[in-house]
Specification:
It is built from nine helices and two strands. The N terminus is likely disordered. The protein has a single domain, classed as Tetracycline Repressor, domain 2 (Orthogonal Bundle). The radius of gyration is 23 Å and the shape is elongated. The chain is mostly helical and 204 residues long. Helix 1 packs across helix 4, helix 1 crosses helix 6 and helix 5 crosses helix 6. Helices cover 69% and strands 2% of the residues. It has a two-stranded antiparallel sheet with strand order 1-2. It comes from Sphingobium algorifonticola. This is TetR/AcrR family transcriptional regulator. GO terms for molecular function: DNA-binding transcription factor activity; transcription cis-regulatory region binding.
């Protein structure tokens, strides 16, 4: 029979001791916090993320997050830089290495569609970032955009205007994927738009 003290029993009592986060190396902890920050940014948006939310997502204390990232800008910009590098290295640069412009552009857009399935959080963050005109992170996005534009324009005889259209098609692709348009329709739409636009562009 349990021992009673007032209305509570010993067997009902809960252990309220603080649960400490598992001990990790500095590098592993930084990676854990970056992954948590990515999830929080994807869920809440660039302008609605703070150290407390990241700490909760990572299962660590708020001071731990501040130890690694002193400001909101430092925390956010590191995640955005990682997302930018991921898109450039996994999609834009491999596409730019292909010889045929139409094939390269179509491949990049289809690869972006697959990227959304593979890393939904990064895709959501990029789409949010690309429209965050009033955010302090906007100049950083313009730097990313300039790099992507130059790489794409290099495939199509330096046609920057067409490069901007192609980047716009990536936004269209993202919208279709996040509104659950079927992959077949996404692929057919990309093919028709790329084929039609390149055929009508004298510089392509």
């Amino acid at each position: 029979m349990p021992w009673f003290f007032g209305k509570w029993t010993v067997t009902d009592a809960k252990d309220t001791r603080r649960v400490r986060a598992a001990r990790l190396s500095r590098e592993a902890r930084a990676e854990q916090l970056q992954a948590a920050a990515l999830r929080v940014l994807a869920e809440n948006g660039i302008g609605h993320t703070n150290h407390s939310l990241v700490a909760a997502a990572a299962g660590v204390s708020v001071p731990t997050v501040f130890f690694y990232y002193r400001t909101h800008a430092e925390l956010t910009c590191l995640v955005l830089d990682n997302v930018a590098a991921q898109i450039l290295d996994e999609i834009v640069r491999p596409g730019a290495d292909r010889a045929d412009p139409a094939e390269a552009i179509e491949w990049m857009l289809l690869r972006f569609a697959a990227f959304i399935d593979e890393d939904r959080d990064s895709a959501r963050v990029w789409l949010d970032w690309s429209t965050a005109i009033r955010s302090e992170t906007w100049p950083r996005y313009l730097t990313f955009l300039s790099t992507a534009r130059q790489l794409i324009a290099g495939m199509i005889q330096g046609n920057v205007e067409l490069a901007d259209v192609i980047i716009g098609l990536a936004h269209m692709t993202g919208h279709m994927k996040f509104t659950h348009v079927s992959d077949d329709v996404v692929a057919r739409t990309i093919h028709r738009l790329v084929d039609g636009y390149l055929a009508s562009s004298p510089d392509a």
